[in-house]
């Protein structure tokens, strides 16, 4: 018998009923077609992603079963979220709607992980599986879960690692999660929780601290927006605040119904474009010789930056350097392409320079 079959047979013995093959079949079986108009064509990829996540979560289930931990049915009203939030709430989440419909049709395939809530008998606190819990609660169904005694630190590490392994949080959600953890826990614990090194953890925390959380919550998780563009957004804030003219423009935009109807990524783009195009008028006060206060208007120069192509490359120019940035999260293939072409571009430039001489 080959090694692959040996592993499969060993895992099968951990499960009752149909064994591993049955669980994989359940998780990968085609889902019933959704009613017309329930979710638009633009969200089809989100539905596919949800199915991929279920497959990944089977790995977690395997390890739980291997430790002889029982799966039980819990009343959703007796379950509460983690004491540190890791997600932004949005008015409409197509992926959540797809998950809810999947659970309604085929049941909850993968259990959540909970612990007995401290000082609350009969109540359980979620380490991970918040969306599954919310879906079951909305459907009025029991939620299947694994109960495990966890300390606060163990719960947060399990919560952070699960999201990191599944790449389930957006960049800014990860920043906020790190920022919240940093209020009460040492950096060493945060490093374990999200699986990043100390340097990056520090950068994520500082970026989240640059912008008010209320501002970030209005924009939302923006799953397609990576670090370079969030850093550009943060550059407009000083001591956690926008310049008066920028703040006025942003507040007006936030008040529009048409803005609130946009998806999170679109909201981000609208806000960043507004900040780029609006001069930041600052009031500078200086004392005159006779003691009176003179007020003068000053316009802060917006950074000389622009996007090339369809948000492929961000170009920033200063007196000292011209910096080209590629979002490695959303344009990784283009970044690799650009690196491959760079030697030829440099050679072409040198050849042109030689001809001019």
Automatic annotation (TrEMBL):
The UniProt entry's coiled-coil ranges are: 44-71
Question: What range does the record give for the signal peptide?
Answer: none
Q: What residue stretches are annotated with the ParB-like N-terminal domain?
A: 72-164
| Protein name, per record | Plasmid partitioning protein RepB
User: What UniProt keywords apply to this chain's record, in alphabetical order?
Assistant: Coiled coil
Enumerate the InterPro entries for this protein: Chromosome_partition/occlusion, ParB/RepB/Spo0J, ParB/Sulfiredoxin_sf, ParB_N, Plasmid_partition_RepB, Plasmid_RepB, RepB_N
- The highest taxon in the source lineage is Bacteria
Q: Which family does it belong to?
A: Belongs to the ParB family.
SMART domains in UniProt: ParB
Which species does the entry assign this protein to? Answer: Pseudovibrio japonicus
């Amino acid at each position: 018998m080959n090694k692959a079959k040996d592993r499969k047979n060993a895992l099968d013995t951990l499960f009752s009923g149909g064994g591993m093959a049955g669980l994989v079949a359940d998780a990968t079986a085609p889902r019933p077609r959704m009613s017309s108009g329930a979710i638009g064509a633009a969200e089809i990829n989100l539905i596919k992603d949800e199915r991929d996540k279920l497959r990944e979560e089977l790995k977690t289930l395997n390890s739980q079963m291997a430790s002889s931990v029982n799966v039980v049915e819990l009343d959703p009203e007796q379950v509460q979220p983690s004491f540190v939030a890791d997600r932004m709430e949005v008015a409409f989440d197509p992926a959540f709607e797809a998950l809810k419909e999947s659970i309604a049709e085929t049941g909850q395939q993968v259990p959540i992980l909970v612990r007995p809530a401290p000082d609350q008998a009969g109540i359980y606190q979620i380490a991970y599986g918040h969306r599954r819990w919310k879906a079951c609660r909305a459907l009025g169904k029991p939620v299947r879960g694994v109960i495990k005694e966890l300390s606060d630190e163990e719960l947060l590490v399990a919560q952070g690692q699960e999201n990191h392994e599944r790449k389930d949080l957006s960049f800014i959600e990860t920043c906020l999660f790190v920022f919240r953890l940093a209020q009460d826990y040492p950096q060493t614990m945060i490093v374990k929780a999200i699986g990043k090194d100390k340097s990056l953890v520090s950068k994520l925390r500082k970026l989240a601290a640059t912008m008010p959380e209320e501002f970030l919550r209005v924009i939302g998780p923006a799953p397609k927006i990576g670090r370079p563009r969030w850093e550009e957004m943060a550059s407009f804030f000083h001591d956690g605040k926008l310049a008066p003219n920028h703040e006025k423009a942003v507040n007006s935009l936030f008040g529009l119904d048409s803005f609130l109807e946009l998806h999170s990524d679109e909201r981000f783009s609208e806000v960043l474009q507004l900040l780029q195009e609006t001069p930041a008028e600052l009031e500078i006060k200086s004392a005159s010789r006779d003691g009176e206060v003179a007020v003068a208007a000053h316009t802060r120069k917006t950074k000389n930056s622009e996007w090339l192509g369809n948000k492929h490359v961000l170009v920033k120019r200063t007196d000292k350097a011209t910096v080209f940035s590629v979002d490695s999260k959303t344009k990784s293939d283009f970044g690799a392409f650009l690196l491959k072409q760079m030697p030829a571009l440099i050679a072409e430039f040198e050849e042109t320079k030689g001809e001019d001489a």
